[in-house]
## 1
Amino acid sequence: MYTMQNKDQDIHDRAQHDNDVPLSPQSVQTGTETSVQCFSTMSQTTYNLVKRRHVSIQTDIDVLPSPGVERMSTGTQTDDSCINDLLDHSFVSSIENDNNDESEESDLDWIPESDNEEQNDIHHDINPAKERKFIVFESCLDNLFTSCCSCGFPCSMSKTVLGSYINIKSSCENCNTQRKWESQPTSNSMPLGNLIIAGAILFSGGSAHKFLTLCMHASVQMFSIGTHMKIQSLYLVPTIENVWQREQLHLFTTARESGETLRLGGDGRCCSTGHTAKYLSYTLMDLKTNKILDTQLVQKNEVRNSYAMELEGLQRGLAKIAEEELQVSHLVTDRHSQIKKYMREVHPEVVHWFDCWHIAKGIFKKLEAVGKKKNCEIIGDCSRSISNHTYWCAMSSEGDGELVSQKWCSILNHVCNVHEGHGNKFPRCEHGDLEDRLWIKKGSKAYEELEKIVKGRLLMTDIKKISPAEQTSGLEAFHKVLCHFAPKFVHYFHAQMEARLLLAALHFNENSTRQQAKNQNGDLIYSVSFPKGRHGEGVAKEVKVKQTFSRSKLTNFITEC
């Protein structure tokens, strides 16, 4: 009768016949049961650890029975002799070799006694720059490590402080339990908290001295000013330059793909008030898209004097535009004499316009000064209306310089209640009937003073090139943003000044196309502003939607350092 033992014997004979190839334990089956148990891994323990422990159990058992000792079956119907034949010396040796090789490799990657690596795996996918952070008192930290979490006995502690980073090690003298805790993740021995805080100071346009003084008064552990300067020069400044280069390349590519020539606006901004500026930043803006294409930082010792810094900044900016193979058709600037000569002689193919606001501002200041003289008070009363007349002359003339000139000079007849005979291109005023008002008499002192201003030699030359459409008001808004990142009353070294200049450009480009805000009813929102130049007069101002401070490209770099 063919029994189960005969079937097992046949399996053994076939294994011996096939070149004595050892069979794996998983391939030996006896009836419906298996001689190798299956381990459940429904836990956080990895399969490699289970496999190592399983193999260790198998190798620790002496599979060759001692003489006189009877082997007992463990839940199987297979004869003991079959098991002894299968688990021969060659099979046990192969298991021991696999166990040694695998344990050496796996122990380097996974240490079950350490809890720090499991904690790092949990927070591996969290961006440290966007993760929430808290201020913890030192006494509260001591309460967590003064007693052992295993036996409750007191523990000895040691603390290592590095800026905003603290490392606490506790050791129990009773059960020898040791714990290690870090307040923040590190990267190449650099605490990421120090890097994030230093980056936040710079990216927000803040002052490191003020922030560190605040932390000192609040007894908040923080790094020194020297550490901040090192982090800034080694990590933050190169990051800002890298992000700006990519942003600038995108702007140049977009302008090149459009196939249109550029209408640029250029203006300079000194780093301090008065005539003692060390730096001047010159910015070129695309007036169609209201985006900053390039900004250059010029130091005073690079040119012969501070007055020549603005021309040097323009030359560098136009050279950068030329390197990108972009053509400039129009350029709107202020009335800088060196720039006027440079554009006339070096770039005659570019139409050079003058900004209306700069011309109107100069006229208004002169009229205000004349209005303070005796018998000239009437000029001060109408100084705002006369300066605003320049905007109408530029807008309604469509770039015709002679027409602009005749419209501008017509103000001398208009204030005397004469509204005809201004010129062949502008014979009469375009307004309707006017009510009675106080007019200026021709030949009076007030009229002569006004005529000197209106028919000034330089003004009559420059008024013909006043810009009919695009203006540099966007650049003035950028300079206001730049004052936030680099205030004029604070001195910065060249690398820091350039980094803050690029930060201001990135922030401005991010928010340059904001729309006007609306209320719940869908109506546009306005506010009343009182600018300094208006001397207390209110001005209606559009309220824009809230500006954004994403700078995701900069914050993402922090985690890559």
## 2
Amino acid sequence: MSRCLLLCLSVLSVCLPNVAAVSSSSVLAIEIGSEWIRVAIASSTHFPEIVLNHQSERKTPAMIYFKENGPLAFGDAAWSALGKYPTRVFPGLRHLLGVPASSPLVEEFLNGSNPDSIFTDYFRDSHAFSFGEGNDEERYTPEDIISMFFKFALSLGRQVDPAISKCVYVVPTYFDSTQKQALREAADLAKLEVIAEIDELTAVAVEYASGRQFSTPEHLLFFGAGAHAISAALIRISSPVKDGSVTSSSPLLIEVLDSRSDERFSAFQFDRLLLNLLVNRADEAFKGRRRGESVRKSSRAMSRLMREVKSIKEVLSTNQIASISLDELIDGLTFTTKVSRQDFETLAADSLRAEVILSPLESIMKDAPVGLSDIAELELFGGSSRIPFVQQTLQQYFNRRLGQHLNTDEAAVTGAAYYAGSISKYPRYRQITILESKPRWKREAFVRPLDTDGRYVAQDRLKDLYKKEERYKMAAQARSNFESRLFQVQDQMSEFESQVGSDSKLAMSVEKVKQVLNQVEDWLSMQTEQTLPETYRRKRDWLDKEVKASVDLWKQMNQPNDEL
């Protein structure tokens, strides 16, 4: 019996290494991408490992489904709900972080989404999302939703280590300081203990360098092509050791000399173009077999076509033609078609141009301290870097074989995990020092609190927090302008009243305006700091219209220069 028990224990120790090995000192690395969420974990006993989701997959679609009754759904569950509940499913919101309401990115998002659930948040000069009506209405900003992705990533990490709370997250290279601030706010909302943030291409450089030796410094170019931008970085990697004996465990010095981005290249737009192509072909194929309504009217059919778009791009990265066949796409009709690589490149001609693809690289090399011949490697990262035209353009520019030593999907999150292990002083990890030629963004502390039930505090209770934000001044200034206008009208009406005399027509007009002013004063007393600037502007226009008749009449009585 004892031998059998020992055998069982030994089998368990072999089959469950992660449970025993990973301690509460583990650190998460999180990448919230435009299309995918990836999570890795670093611990004192293991090198970085990708954390699998509930479907045992290494990445999760960055998509969220707000159920009317029930918990939030992420990833594939959200994909499945997209066809039936398109107004409650939102994909790819990362690029909306920190961008103003007037941004073309917002307009692009609205063109591909149901606008009924989207409204303008004037306090933050951005868009937000609402569900329900009246007391049941729920409002979420992009930061709120991205924080839910962070919480989802944390829940995956806690399947491996229930006590984990620390993390390093990846920041897109093209993000400006406002967007970085919004991403950090989302992490704060998720109550993550952030020990560092790392630039996307810098994380890729860490992953590239982690298993290599650098007896002499090397200059490398890293090129990333993602869903909403292409980016490039010039990075110098070295191992600063005194005695010159460099090993695979020697410290690493990663110096980011420059980085540039170009947002004209948009894989997100590629998806829209391919989707429109499939819709047009389906409408043409079903002409005469349906009542003339476009496939676009069916949310279920559109959801299935959107899934095929992802598959088509993957197939065309290695093949000339992609074939699709969808049984019972709509009204029991089957849709089949073929999309060639030439079709795709024709659709995406505006972005797939050499001058667009090479613009970040050419900008960097124009001011670089080294020439192109001194670059050791040009490494590729990001799903769109697999597009053949992109690789051909880069190959002609570099005039050498492109470096493809990295997993283009996981390099950033794995590099972030290596960096997390390094700054956590885990003995198995190399010491990594990152230097940047440009000053780092310094955030201002702003954390939105949670209510006692774990929900975000209601928007009408955020006045103290809004005062800490620069955009809050928009509302305060709008109220101040309205009050000044009101006082000005009141003074003018007092002057009118004192000089009315026997003119009964003017007296009646002034009395009417006085009643209007009393109504406005009552209305103003009921307004709060949450009243939108647009509301004050509309009320001011109404007030001007109401007093215009009295003002015109007064001007006719020999006082043309006395303006309101």
